[in-house]
Known about the structure:
The structure holds two protein chains of two kinds.
Chain A: H1 3-12, H2 15-52, E1 55-58, H3 63-71, E2 81-82, H4 83-91, E3 95-107, E4 110-115, E5 134-137, H5 144-162, E6 183-186, H6 188-194, E7 201-202, E8 205-206, E9 220-226, E10 236-240, H7 241-245, H8 248-254, E11 255-256, E12 261-264, E13 266-271, H9 274-286, E14 291-293, H10 295-348, H11 353-394, E15 405-406, E16 415-416, H12 417-441, H13 445-449
Parallel strand pairs in A: 4-10, 6-9
Antiparallel strand pairs in A: 1-13, 1-14, 2-12, 3-4, 3-8, 3-13, 5-9, 6-10, 7-9, 11-12, 15-16
Helix pairs in contact in A: 1-11, 2-10, 2-11, 3-10, 10-11, 10-12, 11-12
Chain B: E1 5-17, E2 23-35, E3 39-43, H1 50-57, E4 65-70, E5 73-74, H2 80-90, E6 91-94, H3 106-116, H4 121-134, H5 150-162, E7 168-172, H6 180-197, E8 200-204, H7 208-211, E9 216-219
Parallel strand pairs in B: 3-8, 3-9, 6-7, 7-8
Antiparallel strand pairs in B: 1-2, 1-4, 4-5
Amino acid sequence: MNLLSLILRSLSSRKTSTLLTALGAALGVALVSAVVVLGHEVESSYRNSGSGFPMIVGPKGSPMQLVLNTVYHLDKSPGLMPYRAYEELRDARWVRLAVPYAVGDSFRGFRVVGTTDSIFTERFTPLPKQPLVIAQGRAFKHDSKFLNHLIDDLRGKAVAASRPSSESSGHHHHDHSHEIIAEAVVGATVARELGLKIGDKIEPTHGVEGGKDHKHEHLWTLTGILAPTSTAIDRLVFISLESFFGIEDHQQGALLPDSGDVGLSAAIVYPAAATQRAIMLPRLNKRSDIQAVSPSEVIRGLLDIVGNVDKVLLLEAVLAVIVAVLGTAVAIYNLMNERLREIAILRAVGARRFQVLLLVVGESVFVASLGAIAGLAAGRGLIAAVSDRVAATAGFVPDPLAYVPVSLGDSVPAVPFEVITLVAVVVVSAIAGLLPAAKAYSADVARHLAPPT
Amino acid sequence: MSSDTALVVEGVTKAWRSPSGTDRRVLDHVGFVVERGSSMCVTGGSGSGKTTLLHILAGLVNPDAGSVILGGQSLFTLGEAARDRFRARHIGYMFQVFNLVGMLSAMENVALPLVFAGESASSAQTRAGALLERLGLSGKSDHRPQALSVGEQQRVALARAVVAEPWLLLADEPTASLDPANAEMALELLASEASRTGASTVIVTHDPAVRARFALQLTVGGGT
Lengths: 453, 224
């Protein structure tokens, strides 16, 4: 038996009080842990996604809305840009890769993106230097010639629609839907949550808001399932652009009669060289039909706003921890009067004042640390529990086991935030524990040894 | 005084301040010598200062004047921490109500003075276990005090007082909580343990039957 075992005995002799006070500390620390880990995951995920999409070109409007809609698949689409602008980008020498995105459909709550098979090339890196990986099956079939033909046809429709008497145009169109190869590749979460397997038929509906949507008359065959990326891509259904435009409903909504063109939601542009992004962004933004944004800049602006909210939340959480840790000391202090006799006995059989002080401070530190460890685990558990909900509402999958380092300065290696939290809890609880410890330290041994009356 | 002298008390004076603010002197120039291995009983009426004297002998209460020398060491010239350690090593204290620590087992209670004296946990437990066995409590060493009979608690309290083989064994009304049979056994055990360890013994009692067993007696409150 030593001082530590005395501390453990003392605490275990008051199990209910010990557990309740530890629970208080655990709740405070769980809050801190959840806020810190989630904040870290928001930031790293948004930064990663931002840098995985160097430039997004879309219709004029809110840059934030364009980024949120294209990268995170949140918010409504800000509108349509001319398909011609995408073609210019695709063929421009300064562009390494331009990926078209047509959005507006959903399949059982998951958004559908019409695009080309360029997303399966190594040049499409939604996370820095990480191309998409098809975990099962294969990419959907994409026929660029057929797409071009379809686009031409739709442009004719757009021009016709711009004329007052479109019926008299003499331009004839035919239904392409029977020629379309309708195949789909889904993100990992879509496959998991809907229990999809290769060969399944899926039937996207028009609209992502729900309520007003209606089913198309066509079925897409699932040909591939993507490996998880922990980004919004996990929650997407990709189909070929020609199968997207081949649908009559889409054709109507995608026509831009004013420009006689077909509309596209956005294009993700990978410049051939990083410097070209800075040169081309202002040039493209001078145009009246499109805007070009750098997601990382937009995200930085967003994180500056969110970061402040984050700091307020963190401050509140830290205050909650301090209150909880003080609570453990107060709980020990409140029991101190009943324990002075026990303290006096220990002193009478040889315990020094300092040992008694350590005993009480040790109890405070032990209970608070026990709560802190449980709270740190609970915080991570909380992230795991809300992971799906966050994925659905914030467009990324938080990792409950993410390493969250805290930098203590340039010359010191970063340490996990759990270590900092534990050290802080130990220090605060030791200081708080001095309050009841002082009472034990200064206890009048002779008076408290007297038989109880 | 001889080199065997275990306890020398000289001119010990102590006054307590009453709630009305006046000082009441409970010990007035008390002095005595208890040779090594000898025993003495302290008697006196209620509030006469018997327990205060015991607390002073244990180094728990500072006297206003006078000195307590045990085995050549003046108790009150030591700093408080050194005095606490000295007490753990050389002074055993048996309380009237045993004052066992409820959260600890019988063995752990007995081992406490050894632990506070700096002995390793395993050695302290071994010595405590051996002593409990000698006192007939080997089967009860893991029991909490609440699970022991009054007589057993008394023996655990005695074991705790003598486990460090102290130079001085103090006992405050050791028979007050016991029936006559247990009281008799307690006194026998106290005497045999003191004899075994060579400790000097000072017992506070108001029981005439107990007092009659001691040749050396000190009466406080009404003169020595």
